[in-house]
Amino acid sequence: MNRAKINYLIDIGLAISFFVCFITGLIKWPGLVKTIDANFYGLLSNRKISMLHDLSGLIMGILVMIHLALHWKWVVAMTKNFFSGKKDNNN
């Protein structure tokens, strides 16, 4: 599998895990569900929502580390460029 496909799959995984973590975080937020008068607990128990939230956060963290490892040379180059005061030719 080439690098572009790996990056694509990791980015899709990051997006999915982010949205699951974000939505379950909103559902868990005290008072928010009552304020908007929504009932999500009929579909999933509080325990399952918390487990989904924790698992998606863990997956997102692992994928972020992989993403950073795959782009490490770029991160180092941009950091050096930023602190050296050189102008970026792309802008």
The major pleated sheet works out as: none
In DSSP terms (H or I, runs of 4 or more residues), the helix count works out at 4
Specify the overall morphology. Answer: elongated
End-to-end gap:
32 Å
Give the topology string: H per helix, E per strand: HHHH
Count every beta strand, where a strand is a DSSP E run of 2 or more residues.
Answer: 0
Summarize the structure.
With 91 residues, the protein is mainly alpha-helical. Helix content is 75%, strand content 0%. The mean pLDDT is 86.
Report on the structure:
By secondary structure, the protein is mainly α. It has one domain (3-84). It is built from four helices and no strands. The protein has helices at residues 3-28, 32-35, 46-70, 72-84. The radius of gyration is 19 Å and the shape is elongated. The mean pLDDT is 86.
Task: Please describe the structure with a list of short key phrases separated by commas or semicolons.
91 residues
Can you lay out the helices and strands and say which pair or pack?
Layout: H1 3-28, H2 32-35, H3 46-70, H4 72-84
